[in-house]
Write a structure and sequence with these properties.
Length: 542
C-alpha cells in the first residue's frame, strides 16, 4: 500500500519549530498554558505532506479494441490509423447522458479524474452507476483533487472499500479535519498547486474531455445557476492519449490512496451502509432530473449509434501539464501551445474563458493580432453571471486595455436565451440563471482547443490543466458557430466604448437594442463590492 514518509518533510517541521522557539522573548510574556496549547496547535499544522511512493502502480486498459465500445467505435475502413473520432458535447443534458451511457457499457475499466465532484443529484447518479459497474467486476479508478472536498474522507474511504474501486486524492493536505485550512496556509507553497484536469475514460476506448466537473450546475438541473460549457467525446488516438494522461497523474507521487493517510479505515459493512444511503437519497431526488437518462442496453446503444454517426475523424492530440507543477514551476503546456500558435494566426481568434485575467503581455499579443488584421473575439462572464466576485473585480480592470487593443469583448447575460432551451421545458429551471464555464479557442476555423484552461494566473501558473487540440475545419466550424451564437446579443452583452470614452454594454431584448451604462442588472452594492474586490492584492492567486 502506498503511504507517506514523514522524514521527507523533516525540514518543514524543523522550520516550524525554529519559528516557534525563536520567539522566546514573546512567549515568556504569555501564560504557560496558552503557550503549550499554541505549541501543540502550530506543530500539528506542520503535518507531513502525504505522498504516493509508487508501490501500487497501475495503467489504463491497453486493448480497447477487445471491448464492446472499442469495436463499436472502430474507424471506417478509409480512415488512416491513429486518427481521432471527435463529437462536440455543448448540450449539458447530452453531456450527462453520454457519461452515463458510456459507463453503463464498461467491461474492464472506468478511469475518472476530476477537480470537483459534487454530492448532488447528478454526482450521486454517476457514483451509483460507477459502483454498479464495479459490482460487475469493472476496475474503477477515481482521482479527485483535494481542495473542494472537505469532510469527505470517510465517504471516499467507504467507496474505496469495494474490492474493485480505488480512490486517490491529488496533493492531499497533510492535516485533516478542523486543522485542514491552517495546514493549507502553512504549506501553501505546495498545496496551492491543484489538479484542474477533467477526464472520463471507459475501457481506454472512449473519453470525454473538456470543461465540465461533476455536478448539477454542469448538467442543466440546478434551479439557481446552470453553466454553459463544452466537452468533446473522443475515440481512437486521442482516447489513448487521454489514458496516458490519466496514468501520468494516477502514478505520480501527489496521487495518494485515501486509506493511506487518514485514520478512518472502512470495512465491508461500512461500504454497503454507504451504498444503501446512496440509493435512498437517489430515490428521493431522481425526479429532480428533468430529462430522460438512458438505462437499458438498447436505449444506451441507440444514443451511442447517433454519436458514432456524427463523429468527425481527424488529427487530434491531448496536451497536459506535468503533475508536479510545484516542482517544475514553468508555464502551462497549454499556454506554451497558444504562444506557439500565435504567429500563424491569419484570420480570426474566437476565445471563451469563464475566468478572464489576461496579463499585460497577453493583451499586447491580442493587439499584435489585431494589427495583423486578425479579428479577436473574446467572451467571459458578466458581473451577474460570474460565480467568483473577486475574479470579476480584477477582470474589470482589464476591459479597457483589451478594448484599446482592438478586441471584440463579450460578457454572458445571466438571462441569456441559451437557458430558454432548458427553462421552457421544465418548471424546476424556470428561474435559473446562466453562467459561463467554457474554456475553448477556435483559431482560423481550423484549430480547436477544448479543455480546462482558463486565461488566468491560476491556470497559467498554479494548476495542472489538460486540453484536447483538434486540427480540423469541420470541428472548427462547429465550435465557432456555437461560440458565435453565444456571443450574440440575445445571449451576451457586447462591451464597447461610447462616444465619451466610457464603457457601455449592448444587448437585445425582444428585438430591441438596449444599452447599459453600468454593469447590467447589478445593484449599486454589487458593483461596489466588485470594484473593492478588484483592489485586494490576490490577483496572482485567481
Amino acid at each position: 500500500m502506498s503511504h507517506f514518509d514523514p522524514s521527507s518533510d523533516s525540514r518543514k517541521i524543523d522550520a516550524c519549530r525554529m519559528f516557534l522557539f525563536s520567539k522566546s522573548s514573546v512567549l515568556r510574556s504569555i501564560g504557560l498554558s496558552l503557550f503549550a496549547t499554541s505549541l501543540v496547535f502550530l506543530l500539528s499544522a506542520c503535518a507531513p505532506v502525504p505522498k504516493n511512493l509508487g508501490e501500487n502502480e497501475s495503467t489504463v486498459w491497453d486493448s480497447p479494441e477487445e471491448t464492446e465500445l472499442g469495436r463499436f467505435f472502430q474507424p471506417p475502413e478509409d480512415v488512416p490509423e491513429g486518427l481521432t473520432g471527435v463529437y462536440l458535447l455543448s448540450d449539458s443534458r447530452e453531456a450527462f447522458r453520454a457519461r452515463y451511457a458510456l459507463a453503463a457499457r464498461a467491461e474492464h475499466t472506468i478511469d475518472l479524474q476530476y477537480y470537483l465532484w459534487k454530492s448532488d443529484t447528478t454526482g450521486r447518479l454517476l457514483l451509483n452507476r460507477v459502483m454498479e459497474e464495479a459490482d460487475r467486476g469493472v476496475r474503477v479508478r477515481i482521482l479527485i483533487d483535494d481542495i473542494y472536498h472537505t469532510g469527505r474522507d470517510e465517504l471516499y474511504a467507504d467507496v474505496a472499500a469495494h474490492p474493485n474501486v480505488e480512490i486517490r486524492i491529488f496533493n492531499p493536505i497533510g492535516n485533516r479535519g478542523f486543522m485542514r485550512n491552517f495546514g493549507f496556509v502553512m504549506g501553501a507553497k505546495r498545496y496551492n498547486h491543484r489538479m484542474h484536469n477533467k477526464i472520463f475514460l471507459i475501457d481506454g476506448a472512449a473519453a470525454i474531455l473538456g470543461g465540465r466537473n461533476i455536478g448539477d450546475d454542469y448538467f442543466a438541473i440546478d434551479p439557481k445557476l446552470n453553466f454553459d460549457d463544452m466537452d468533446a467525446l473522443v475515440v481512437g488516438g486521442a482516447a489513448k492519449e487521454a489514458g496516458k494522461a490519466f496514468d501520468l497523474f494516477w502514478n505520480s507521487e501527489a496521487a495518494v490512496p485515501i486509506d493511506s493517510f487518514i485514520k478512518y479505515q472502512a470495512s465491508d459493512e461500512d461500504h454497503w451502509k454507504m451504498r444503501a444511503g446512496l440509493l435512498s437519497t437517489l430515490q428521493d431526488s431522481i425526479d429532480e432530473v428533468p430529462y430522460q437518462i438512458p438505462v437499458d442496453h438498447d436505449e444506451v446503444m441507440a444514443g451511442l449509434k447517433e454519436v458514432r454517426s456524427q463523429l468527425v475523424w481527424t488529427k487530434a492530440e491531448v496536451v497536459v501539464d506535468v503533475p508536479e507543477r510545484y516542482v517544475e514551476k514553468g508555464e502551462s503546456a497549454i499556454f506554451e501551445l497558444l504562444q506557439e500558435i500565435n504567429p500563424s494566426i491569419d484570420d480570426e481568434l474566437y476565445l471563451q474563458s469563464a475566468y478572464l485575467l489576461p496579463e499585460p503581455e497577453t493583451i499586447e499579443a491580442f493587439a499584435g493580432l489585431v494589427d495583423r488584421g486578425v479579428e479577436v473575439h473574446i467572451m467571459t462572464n458578466s458581473l451577474m453571471s460570474n460565480n467568483h466576485l473577486s475574479v470579476h473585480g480584477h477582470y474589470a480592470k482589464s476591459r479597457k486595455p483589451m478594448l484599446n487593443a482592438g478586441v471584440n469583448l463579450y460578457e454572458l447575460r445571466v438571462d441569456g436565451a441559451m437557458m430558454d432551451y432548458y427553462r421552457n421545458r421544465e418548471s424546476r429551471l424556470a428561474s435559473s440563471n446562466s453562467g459561463l464555464h467554457t474554456k475553448a479557442f477556435v483559431i482560423d476555423r481550423e484549430i480547436s482547443i477544448i479543455g480546462s484552461y482558463n486565461m488566468d494566473p491560476r491556470s497559467r501558473v498554479w494548476n495542472s490543466e489538460i486540453a484536447l487540440v483538434v486540427y480540423d475545419p469541420i470541428i472548427g466550424a462547429q465550435l465557432r458557430a456555437i461560440m458565435a451564437e453565444e456571443m450574440g446579443p440575445t445571449n451576451a452583452y457586447k462591451v464597447e466604448f461610447n462616444e465619451a470614452g466610457k464603457l457601455q454594454w449592448t444587448a437585445e431584448y425582444e428585438g430591441e437594442e438596449v444599452i447599459f451604462k453600468t454593469e447590467p442588472n447589478a445593484t449599486r452594492t454589487k458593483r461596489s463590492l466588485s470594484r473593492l474586490s478588484g483592489w485586494v492584492p490576490v490577483r496572482r492567486q485567481l
